[in-house]
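User: Can you predict the 3D structure for this chain?
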Amino acid sequence: MLNFGSHMSAAGGCDLALVRAEELGLTSCQIFTKNERQWSAKPLDPAVVERFHAQKERTGIHLLISHDSYLINLASPDDTLWPKSLAAFGDEIDRCATLGIPYLVTHPGAHLGTGEAAGIVRVADGINRVLNDRPDDTTMVLLETTAGQGTSLGRTFDELAAIAALVEDQTRLGICLDTCHVFAAGYDLRSLENYEASMSQFESTLGIHRLKAIHLNDSQKPLGSRVDRHTHIGEGELGLDGFRWLVNDQRLAGLPAILETEKTPDGENDRRNLATLRSLVESTSPDVD
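Assistant: Here is the predicted structure, written as structure tokens:
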């Protein structure tokens, strides 16, 4: 079975995100280690770092993911924004290393008119520079699938594979599949036949071995809309069948599967979405391969 989790608030300290995750019965967790809409961030408080490590051991939640800042654009052609993005991206990796978070999810970025080919080279170059500056770091960068709005890269598995092929350290690169994004990009998951076709494309271009995390989100917008709008599980265009095959796919067993749906302060939305997902898990999984 998947290790169900959610993106948890780190308000009051990263360590409290794990407390909140435990309260929901999660076995994985995603956080922001800094404000996702600001470039600068205070260094991590050593006391918070110590508490975070202690909470990891106490809760047993070790399948941890950080999502980087929305401001970072590794594909930017701008000679001011690109190095600024690389510096911020490097800081995100350093924060993961300090906290012992194994995965950092990033959007590939937008080429802003230079074209897909140029953008792909730019992203890979940026990742290589940042990773090469940290040869002893083990944080794995996860490129997230995107809906393909505007000039955003990562809409197709082929685009992600092209970036991956240019990354020098293959041991530090993986993929995060977002169900809303791939659906909006044109990959249908709603029937077993279509799900298998989509996953076969993933396998042939990227390889299932690269898939390290999943974002579980229904889509407000229809198939192929290229618009990224999350909604609650079973309440959007994907519907329950859009998740049924995925949660029972034994090839994905053990992966962190993170909810990014709208939150409520009491956690009720997460509880409802998690209950829906768990209700789809069959005691004997269907033959999905």
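The longest helix spans residues 81-99. Strands lie at 3-7, 28-31, 63-67, 103-106, 140-144, 173-178, 211-216, 218-219, 230-231, 256-259.
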